[in-house]
Amino acid sequence: MPAYEYKAKDAGGNTLTGFYDDISSVTALKNELARVGYTLLKARKKKTAKPFSGGGTQQTEIVAFAYKFAGMYSAGLPITRCLEILAEQTENQSFRLILSDIKQQVENGSSLKAAFEKYPRLFSDFFIGMIEAGEAGGKLTTTLTMAASYLEAQLELKRKVKSAFAYPIIVAAMCFIIVGYLVIAVVPIFAKLYKQLHVALPGPTQALVIASNAVRNYWWLILLCVAAVIGLYRMFRDNPSLKIKIDSFKLKMPVFAKLNRMVVVSRFIRTFAMMSEAGIPLIDAFSVANRVANNHCLDAVTQKIQSRIAAGSPIAGAMKECDIFPPMIVQMADAGEESGMVPQMLTKGVELLDKDIDRMIKSLLVKLEPALTLIMGSIVGFILLGLYLPMFDYMSHLK
Question: How wide is the angle at C-alpha 214 spanned by C-alphas 213 and 217, nearest 5°?
Fold first, then answer.
């Protein structure tokens, strides 16, 4: 069904704007608004706003939105007024329409959780869970602030992890460009020269000439193969068995395995700590933490912990049986159970873990820089050696 951006007025003459989707026509929209006491002034057909995928900029907007929403609501403004003001203030057109739609749903009697739940790609399970806990417990300001703080910490962690992977990706890209230029543009010149001089080509040079001819004559086939691989990955990336293999590889891959494990544990424990502090039942908090961690290898771990807790075991004891959790996290959970402050102690433990992640990233960068430089130099050196070997042989015969 089409969606409409509209302008209306209430019984007191106050104007408001909003967004309404899943409505068949302007007449139906007019009747729907009249049902809740509004008079339609103007309506414009719009495409339904696509939810965000959760990228960096969009998540930054969500953090700012949660902080401002919490502050305005704590000042005594009604929820619908908060949403209306925030929609007017945002510069992102899609986000503005989404907030207007959420406001409209709340005005029509929907719960805040159900209104946000309509956009799962923008608002995570964790965010929705915190909204639900805040509504149920009458502490929406607290849970919104906690959610914003959590999302801010997650963004910082993501930034640190990206910095660890950015350098090797940049070096690999530069190496690919240099090697591609040498193979496509330089090797044919030397091959033509050696052919004119009737110089016998050694093995490395022959391999370079064959590679150059293949790239120059069958580049379309190479691009087709790359496109096919990307297409197959996109087709099967939602396949559960493939996801499990990819997630398992992330936790076992060379060099980055330990870092990936620490990041997954950080997301899992931080989410659980925040949700349990907000009053979410332990079993449900672990389920949401598992989804937020976004690694299928934790499915079995989560089920094991939940079954142990359901049977009456302490959280620390259940975690201790799982190899993925560092001893520090288990000890903090144990201390939290002794003092009755499990969420607070786990949050402190995650903060320490994040510091370890930061130190590991810096250490990896120090080690990767010379290693990648050496690899890049070796590849380029091999190509140059292959190019000049016949020249050396030809000059020795001239002497």
Answer: 75
